[in-house]
Predict the 3D structure of the following.
Amino acid sequence: MKAVPLILLVSLLICSACGGSPGQTTPSARTSAYIQNKGSDTIVNLALAWAERYQTEHPDISISVTGGGSGTGIAALINGTVDIANASRAITADEIKQAKANGINPVQVVISRDAIAVVVNPQNPVRRLTLQQISDIYSGKINNWTGVGGDDRPIVRLSRETNSGTHVYFLQTVIRLGDPKNTTLFSTDTLLLPSSEGIINEVRQNPNAIGYDGLGYIPPDLMNSVIAVAVDAGGAYVIPSITTVNNNSYPVSRDLYMYTNGQPTGAIKDYLNWILSPEAQKIVADLGFVPIK
Amino acid sequence: MDKSPNWRETFVTAIVKTCGYSAVVFVILIFFFLLRQGLPALFEVKIGDLFTTRWYPIENHFGILPLLTGSLVVTVGAMLIAIPFGIGTAVFLAEIAPRWMREILKPLVELLGGIPSVVLGFLGILLLSPFLRVFLNLPTGLTALAGALLLGAIAIPTTVSIAEDALDSVPQGYREGALALGATKWQTIWRVTLPAARSGVLTALMLGVGRTIGETMAVMMVTGNAPVMAIKLTSILSPVRTMTATIAAEMGEVANGSTHYHVLFLIGLILFLISLAVNITASSVIFKSRKRAERVLS
């Protein structure tokens, strides 16, 4: 999964090298600008697609996109090494404090929405779960699929690493059911896989597995075994999709953000405005994310 | 004209000396850097909290025992695979295989050592772990065993190559002497050749252990990275999280100078000390055996 963005990144860097002087981003210099964009692995493919399209339309602008995780992107913004930080979670109060201490003033833009899909192996008959059941599975209270109406198989829990914004969001919204006082943790035997690809691969070949990931990362062959989620047992079970995220019926969806230092100006401002345009938001839908209306 | 060779001599000696000392200097500098970044962790986290069984750094659970035991299980597992296979292969190459076969096999084994560990990791994810899950009927194939098998495969080429060199440098007279006394080929290998090459074989094993404990990428890909205590006999069949994988996965994200950052450096320091201990043990064994050999010869 990392290989493709890397190749794109290299090609972007090469483009930026031949596209004139890639120096500091000066707000007034609209003729040629270099924008550094870093952060969430969830957003990286989307950010790359945007950067590519934008650069073909504006050959004078160079944009370099790297991943690393939401925490990495925000840390880079705080250290003043990027122009735009991507994050799949909102910046924390702690991070804002650190930023202020460094003279950085993070400004937030919602760039798209994303649903977190819970997915199982196609051989597993379970297709619907309540939030409480998913929480019990991940916290280690339910250890066999019979506990949620499935076959007699052990449950293998898969998660992203702790530096992933998706991990933090899943912990807060699903495992702790959105309750800030809840201190439930992931069961210690949850497998922490370093990439989305690792999770998809294990779910694909292991009938015991349950995993979660951004809707945009679920491949077509696993789309049929995405779990329909209900807030409580009496409620409606909803499958994640663009429609169910936008009408707020799917409970595990979130906003995706970009952060800049201060109100964006110059080339960065133009770029962020373009991202919110219908043309750029169409790319959002093409990649399986949910466009903002 | 007279002075020029002298001048060259001084110059070359100085360069060689610098190279020699620089290795020592770098190791010491790295050690101090680790100390400086890692020791604050001991003040920021209570020692009692460090030696607990819960590793979940984003909520300030810094128990490193699961990571220590995880690394231990994978390394011991890998050595149990690499030692017999490595020495066996080396003995076959040096003592049994005909010349032409050795000339083909040895470069091939060394080529195996050149395969990047991330490639082995991919094979591990796509082939080894599904196979282990079905074959051993496990909940998941991403286990310490998968890591140990891959690390074994990574350590074997190093072990074979150096052990074979050591066996090869045992004087032919030793073997001829043993055979002349009526020893069988196996007795010659086990009682004469291998003991004579002991220090080289030990070096080979030590370098193998070194590669194993420090290997990161392949391990991170196949062991599942679940920070559970690996203290049962069946732990080899369950997912584990190693120290190296923890550092690799989490170092990119931590805020510079935070407690989490210092704890990760402390883990690096522990890894360093473990390697140091392995090295010192191995060299003292080699040193002792060399002394005895000198006594015997004199």
